[in-house]
Structures are given as structure tokens and as C-alpha cells.
Amino acid sequence: MRNEADENTMTDIAAVYDVLVVGCGPGGFTAATQAAQAGLRTACVDQRASLGGTYLVDGAVPSKTLLDESYFYRLLQQQELVEQRGVRLPYPRLDMQAAQSALKRNIERLSKVYKCELSKNNVTVYKGTAEFTGPYCVEISQRGLGSFIVEARYIVVATGSAVIQCPGVAIDEDKIVSSDKALSLNYIPPRFSIIGGGTIGLEIACIFNNFGSRVTIIESQSEICQNMDDELACATKTLLQSQGIVFLLNTRVQSAGTNAAGQLDVTLLNKLSKNTCVHHCDMLMVSIGRRPLLEGLNISKIGLDERDFVDNVDEQTQSLLKFPHIKPIGDVTLGPMLALKAEQQATRAIQSILSTDSISTSNCGFSPNVLYCQPQIGWVGYTEQQLISAHTPYQTGKVLFSQNVRYNTLLSQKESDLIPAFIKVLVDSRNMKILGVHMINDDANELLSQASMAVSLGLNAYDICKVPFPHPSLSESFKQATQLAVASGISPSVNVRE
Amino acid sequence: MRNEADENTMTDIAAVYDVLVVGCGPGGFTAATQAAQAGLRTACVDQRASLGGTYLVDGAVPSKTLLDESYFYRLLQQQELVEQRGVRLPYPRLDMQAAQSALKRNIERLSKVYKCELSKNNVTVYKGTAEFTGPYCVEISQRGLGSFIVEARYIVVATGSAVIQCPGVAIDEDKIVSSDKALSLNYIPPRFSIIGGGTIGLEIACIFNNFGSRVTIIESQSEICQNMDDELACATKTLLQSQGIVFLLNTRVQSAGTNAAGQLDVTLLNKLSKNTCVHHCDMLMVSIGRRPLLEGLNISKIGLDERDFVDNVDEQTQSLLKFPHIKPIGDVTLGPMLALKAEQQATRAIQSILSTDSISTSNCGFSPNVLYCQPQIGWVGYTEQQLISAHTPYQTGKVLFSQNVRYNTLLSQKESDLIPAFIKVLVDSRNMKILGVHMINDDANELLSQASMAVSLGLNAYDICKVPFPHPSLSESFKQATQLAVASGISPSVNVRE
Questions:
Q1: A87 → closest Cβ in B72, B88, B363
Q2: Residue A11 CA to chain centroid, in angstroms?
Q3: Partner-chain residue, chosen from B26, B88, B361, that has the shortest CB–CB distance to A93
Q4: What is the mean pLDDT of residues B389-408?
């Protein structure tokens, strides 16, 4: 299969592997571990000080940790709520230095889990950059240690993604920052504005809002959360507004810079009225999206360009059409930039190498989605709008958590009384299969697992109605909504139990 | 079917129903609602001021609410833990009066949900006591309003249960109390001792321990939690001990009384050594179990005794063999005294009346179980010990939550580092079906719902491995443990990922 002539001469090769994984985020980690566990000689190269990629080091994990901290801080400030529950509590004070130190310890701990697991499975880990010198050869450069070439039968490219720049807004990581920087700030800017109302923008908005910033989201579209079910998206916006976040919709940022007073002037264009205005803030975060990160890998050396990683990929085997032994996974590929997708692709890539049709391939189509605000927003499967467009006959059951017994025993759920936490189950009228589940509640990410089981395994509503759920639990509302969906008529009747 | 001669004369009858439900806890409520929704003329009688039964008024709900409050109070006292997360917090003070007021509001709110739902479904609700005057006739006595007789084609008996008395220990609801009283106390006794290490005893032990009592559990058996998987029971005991609860095992209470100093003297017998000693405390709670509550119903009037409700019941239709139109459900029947069971039986009872084989019948055999301490203890399906006794070949996968990403982003999970939170999945080696799931973690009651879906729907391990779980979520550990179970050899090898 391989052509020796393409390669460096044997004397240049420092090591030979079955599989070399470039990048050690969740996707790369999964690929390396699974390859090694299957007996393949495996190495992994990553240029960061800590393993785990954007996900672990400056993305999802810091974001979720700070969200948890910030909602705890927010809760403690709601003296009335706390005192009602029998705790008399003096006012708390925030110490962002301590919060950041704790966060760093947390990341280190998780990164160490990656390291230990790789080591346990005999994966060689190189800290350094990687670039192609031939289709089967990669030069690894380690800072201060020089460089060398390794050869591999298969190369998994899991190099991740980078922030997309916003025209007219130069990120200086001082006052105009990326999400990476925002998540490592050890002070709270009085006015924090965010370009982009996607998941990353919204979660970081919640963090700073809870910690006391006045937060503004600037979004060029007419609504946030475009991929959500309309009812859920509407509830999400109302929720975040009720917590103090301001939304400027249909608004484009034309430029941003520091004025004489040292504050930021951000020129905004309203897309509808065509008016411009100057918005003032102390920090501006750009989060209009991320793009595949292939720089530095020198793919042109082997005759590839970025398009080959988008258009020319065999999704069955996660292989480049031009070089089937090169397997891109995760954020460098098309589709949502989620750790879950990266892990699934990693499994598929390794299984294609092993030529196995193993059990772990998750190709159930729907990724469950969570926005980790409080209460959380979670959804999996089809939205009502998708079902209506597709002319799919469906039935709906919706339950408010305010009637759930467990919900009423939990302090942390109380604030959301303003925005009724709910769960909505969409059922196919033809076969009673569960097509979609949409919810707003504090524990959505765990309840969504049940919903994801139902949707991805093709369970039907009758199955769910048979399951004994723990009592009291929030999950009972999933069952109850499913029962209501069964009892309800055909779409678009919405059966609200209130 | 009915014999008019057995009944009162028509002139005595104040109202006639298809279904009369006696008792409005979760079972009675479910029966009444479902009967009415099916178009049956339905009435419900309950003697308490608030609907909801022991479950809502002085059992599970107050217990879970106070547990949540008490763990919040406990968390705030762990200054180091809180400050690590960036919150400088002066020491909190407990106000049990406020806590109890909040609890009462909570119960009222939930009770009102019951009331509204019954009213919405046109169920007539009588506040009063009920006693049989004939097989189809019940006399309802309303305080201050006199009594009258109603007739019904079917009578659902959902009268619940009462505390079992402990010989030698007279409950005075002052210093020697039942769980009902303990859950409504508006002060914290310095030394709080509990006879009985079952779920009720352990949960109330946690509440008072968190609020600052020195808590002792006196248990006549050699271990607590006899029905748990051994590994889980062991972890539970270690957990509660690490939080400060003292266990006196193999110990029987012979007598208890107030001494001259006004404190309680409790005489204990060690079953192994046969030694006796006197144990001092400020409050003693008796929770050695509950018994079916049939007093006042005057069942002897129609030729029944308590045995008829235990031994002579058709479980398919929830009917008394002697009078198939009388249907006992919930705590008055054999088996675990859980709201879940009562609700399932209620559904079965109403379905037998309607002669339908409806979708909602949950007869999946295994009830999920949760001990709502923190972290929670949850289990469903078979224990390892049961599988070994039955010579069932099984495989085990166990994962520590300390390696779970979501776990590491949550403040509330941190205290449990002492006792490693884990999840253990038991899989049938012959067909890979999930036989049992046992776990210790803060969100066990919601994770258990997934496990209960798997066990009760007969899903196999391969199914679970296919499901995309939200990322990051605690539920991912369920999938991971299942993957390890698949990868592991046949029992009794235990594959611990650490």
C-alpha cells in the first residue's frame, strides 16, 4: 500500500508506529487510547503544556467550572432565597484569583487523567508541534529538544479549531479578547460585551453576569440559538434576560477600539434600521465561531489543502479520499464542534483501521445538546419546526417542573420560577417513536441522557411509560410528558399540563 | 355482580360513584385521577388537612427538602471548600423556624397541585374518615359536618401505613419521637439517636447530622442497608461515618426513659456480647419500620381482616379475592412501601376496572432505589450477591466519578472525594443484558433513571454503548462502565478503572 519512494530514507526515522495521533483533545485522546488498547503501536503528539485540547484547557471544562462557581455565588447573593431555607448568611465576597487557581488545579487534575490513561495504555506522548514531511512521515519539533521524524501506517489528524476573527475587531487579548482569554481572567470587568450569541458566547455571558458584570450580547441574526426548537429558544432568551443579560439582535459590529478615556468604543450597525451607534464597554469578547485548525501541519507538502479535510472525506472510515491512511476527526472536520462528535469519529477511525464493526460505533445521528446556563437548556432529536417542515405527523406532551415533586424539594431550582422549567416530548404519531425531547431545567444534561437513549435507540413512547423511574426524581417528568404525548391528539396540538 | 341485599337502603345513600378511593397519597391520587380521566364517576376521601399522604406531608417530601437544605448548610460551613472556589463567605447561622416555614409552604404548594389536578378531573374530594358499612358502601364522617354514606361499584383502599412501635420504647412525640415528628422539629437536639438503620432512619440521620446534632444509629442487624449490593452498602456506611454519624450495630434497645437530669437514658443490649449499657441522648427517634394502616376502616364489618389484604390479593387486578371490587394499593399491600409501587398498583387497579391492557402498566419487576444522602446512593436490578447465588454468569464494569469531567466541574461533588463516588454495571455474560446498576454520586436519582430504563426494558450493553451521551455529563460514566463491563471477562472479575 505504501510507497517507500514517497518517504524519507530509513535513517531519518526516529520511530515507527502503527498509529500517530496529532492533537490530544477528546478526539485524539480517544483515538490514541483505543488504538493502543487494540494492540497497535501508538503515539500522540500535542503542542500544549497540558493535554486535553481546547475542550479541557480553555474551552468547555473551564467554562462549565466557572459557570458552576458563578451560579453558586449568585445563589448566595440571593439572601431572601437562602434565608427562606433556614440559613442566615452574611453577604459573600468574590475572589477571582482563588477561583482561577481552583480552576487551574481542576484542569491539571483532568489533564493528568489523560496522561495517566495514555501511559497506562503504552501510548508514547510527544510534547511538540507536528508537520508532514511525507504522507507517512511527520516531523515533531519539541521546544529546546530539536526535531525528529516519526513514521506511521495511519495518521489521525485531531488538531482542533481556532477562533474566527471578526472583521474590524482585532483581538488583542487585553480588552478585546477571545473566549480562551475570557475564561482565564482573574478580575471582573464592569461592562462585558460579547459578539456572537452561540453556545460559547451565552455560557461566558452567564459567568460574567453572575459574577457582577453588566453583560451585553451582540448578535447579527434576529434570534439567538437558531438551531433550537422555537419554544425552547424563546424560553432561553427570556431566562437570560431575566437574569440581567441584554441582547442586541440584528446588530453587526463594524469596528472596535479604545478611546481616550481608556474604554472601548464599539461601532454597531442595526441591520434593520441601518442606523449605527457607539456602544461602550470595558471588555469585548469575540465569539462568532471557530474554524478548523490545520496551520503548521504543512499539509501542502503532501499535496493537500484545507478543502480536502472538508469535502473529500469518507465518513464511514473517517479517511481522506486522497490518502485513506490519513484520518481527520473532531473540529477539523465538518459539522458541530463538539467533543462528543470527535470521540465518535475517533472510534470510527480506529475501527476502520482494525476493520472491525465494533459495538462502540455511535452513529445514532443525533447529538444531545446542552447550554449549561441555570437552569440548563437541553435538547436532542427533531424540533417541532423540523417535523412540521417534513410533514411528519407527531404528538406533543409537555410538563412543567413546578409540578414535579423532586423539583420542589431542591433549593437550587427555585430561582427559575420566573421562567417555567419544562420538558417537551415529541412522538411520531405513526409508530409512537420518540422523535425529540426539549427541556429547560437544572439537571438537563443528565435528563437528556435518558432522552438521548430513547431517541437514539428508537424507543417508543410505550417503552418509556413502562419504566419505573426513581421517586421523587426530575426524570419522572420525562415519563409524564411522554404519557401526555401518547394521550394527546395528532400535531400541532400541544398538551400543557398546568 | 353486586347484591343489593348487602347494601344500605337507597334512601341512606348520599352519592353514588363508579370508584371511591380511600386515602389520597400518591397511590390514591393516581387511582382517582386515572379513573376520572377514563370517564368514571370518581370520589376520593382523605382525613388529613392536606392531601398527599405520608409521602407528601410527613414522609419523603419533607425528608428530601430538609436533606437538601441541610446539605446546603453543611456546604456553606466548609469554608475551605467554598473559598477555594472563589467565594469568601462569613460563617452561616441556622434558623430552623425559617426552614420549617419554608418546608410547610412547599408541602402546601404540592398538596395544592394534588387538589387542583383532582378538581380539574372532576374527582369529588371528601375530607373525613371512611368506614365500611357494606361491601359497596362507605360512611364518610367529616369533622363538624356530620356523616353520610356513599356507594361505589369499586373501592380502592389506599390508606397507607403507620410507624411500627418498638417494644419498651413509648413514643411520646416529645423526646421519643416518630419520623413524622422529627421532620417537623423547629430546633436541633444536641444528641439525636435513631433506632433503625433503614432508609428513613438514615436520611433523617443525615439531616440532623448536617444541622449539627451528634447522631447515633442503633441497628439490631450486623449491617445497615441489608438489601443493597455489599460493595455499595459498605461505601454507604463509610460515607456516613466520614460525615460524623456513629453506628451501633448488633444492638437492640431494651428500654428508654427520661432521667432526673431531663435527658434520655436508653438501655442497649449488644446481641453478640450480651452486654447491656445505658446510652444518653436528647432525642430518640423510632424508625424500625412501618405497617399497613387499616384501623378505622372497619373492615370486620364486611367480614374481612388484615390478612385478607396481605395473603388474599390478586396481583393482576389488585383485587381482594373475597371482594374483587375492593382494590388495595400502596403501603397497605405487601412489598416495599414506596410511592412508585403505590402508583403502579393504582394504574393496575384502574386498568383492571376498565378491562384495558394499557400502556402505562409498569410491571418491570425492579424498582429503582435511592438513599438521598449526599452523595446519593442508588441501585436498580440485581446485586452481585444475588447473581452469584443464582449462578448467573455476569461481567462487571466499574468507573470512579473522579475521572468524570462533569464531576470535576461541580462544586457540590467535591466533598465526596473521601468516599470515591462510583458506578458499577452488571451485565449478563450470556446475552449482554444489563442486570443491575449500583452507584454512589450526587445525582444518583437521575442517573438511576437511565439505569432503570436499561434494566426494565431489557436493553443490552451494546445498546448503551451506542447512545451519544451529553458531554460533559455524569451519565457518561454509565456508558463507560457499561463499555468496561463488555470488555471485561466473566465474573467475578471486577474491572476498576483507576
A1: B72
A2: 43
A3: B88
A4: 92
Residues constituting chain A: 498
Domains A12-56+101-162+291-354 and A176-288 share a fold: yes
Return d(Cα B446, Cα B452) in angstroms, integer. Answer: 10
Question: A15 to chain B, minimum CA–CA distance in Å?
Answer: 30
pLDDT in tens, B241-284: 999 999 999 999 999 999 998 899 999 999 999 999 999 999 99
Please answer yes or no on whether A61 and B340 come within 8 Å at the CB atom: no
For residue A375, what is its C-alpha cell? 437552569
CB contact under 8 A, A468 and B361: no
pLDDT of A413: 53
The more confidently predicted of residues B364 and A250 is A250
Query: What residues in B contact A364, CB-CB < 8 Å?
Result: 466-468
Catalytic residues of A: 471
Average of pLDDT values for B199-206?
Answer: 95
Closest CA to A211 of A235, A229, A187: A187
Give me the residue label for grid cell 535513517: A11
Indicate the annotated binding residues of A. Answer: 64, 159-161, 196-203, 219, 289, 331
Q: What is A12-56+101-162+291-354's CATH topology?
A: FAD/NAD(P)-binding domain (3.50.50)
For the ranges A398-412, A419-433, A442-456, B197-211, the lowest mean pLDDT is seen at A398-412
Our CA-based measurement puts residue A461 at a distance from the nearest CA of chain B, in whole angstroms, of 9
Q: Which residues of A touch B406 (CB under 8 A)?
A: 64, 445
Question: In chain A, what residues touch B414 (CB-CB under 8 Å)?
Answer: none
pLDDT exceeds cutoff 70 at B496: no
CATH code of B4-56+101-162+291-354, in short, is: 3.50.50.60
Contact A362 B465 (CB under 8 A): yes
**pLDDT per residue as tens digits for the range B10-68:** 457 889 999 999 999 999 999 999 999 999 999 999 999 899 998 888 888 899 999 98
Of A73, A86, A95, the CB nearest to B99: A86
Q: What is the pLDDT of residue B434?
A: 96
Please report, for chain A, the start and end positions of each structural domain, with discontinuous segments joined by +.
12-56+101-162+291-354, 176-288, 369-497
Written out in words, the top-level CATH class of the domain with range B369-497 is alpha beta
Minimal Cβ distance to A470: which of B445, B472, B475: B445
- Going by pLDDT thresholds of 50, 70 and 90, the confidence category of residue A10 is very low
Q: What is the pLDDT of residue A75?
A: 86
Residue A121 to chain B, least CA–CA distance (Å)? 12
Please name the helix (run of DSSP H) or strand (run of DSSP E) that holds residue A242, with its range, or none.
helix A230-242
- Strands B146-157 and B13-22, bridge-based pairing: parallel
CB pair distance less than 8 Å for A89 and B93: yes
Strand pairing class (A319-320; A326-328): unpaired
ipTM: 0.88
Integer Cα distance of B70 and B87 in angstroms: 20
For A143, other C-beta atoms within 10 Å of its C-beta total 9
Q: With a cut of 80, say whether residue A293 has pLDDT above it.
A: yes
Q: Is the pLDDT of residue A22 over 90?
A: yes
pLDDT cut 70: percent of chain B above it: 92
pLDDT: which is higher, A49 or B32: B32
C-alpha cell at A399: 410538563
Binding site as annotated, residues of A for NAD(+) = 196-203, 219, 289
Nearest to residue B371, comparing CAs of B476, B241, B240? Answer: B240
Q: Per the structure block, which three cell numbers stand in for B205?
A: 440521620
Q: What percent of chain B has pLDDT over 90?
A: 69
Q: Which residues of A touch B474 (CB under 8 A)?
A: 446
Classified as helix, coil or strand, B233 is helix
CA distance B476 to chain A (A): 8
CATH H superfamily, domain A176-288: FAD/NAD(P)-binding domain (3.50.50.60)
The answer to whether B222 and B250 have CB atoms below 8 angstroms apart is yes
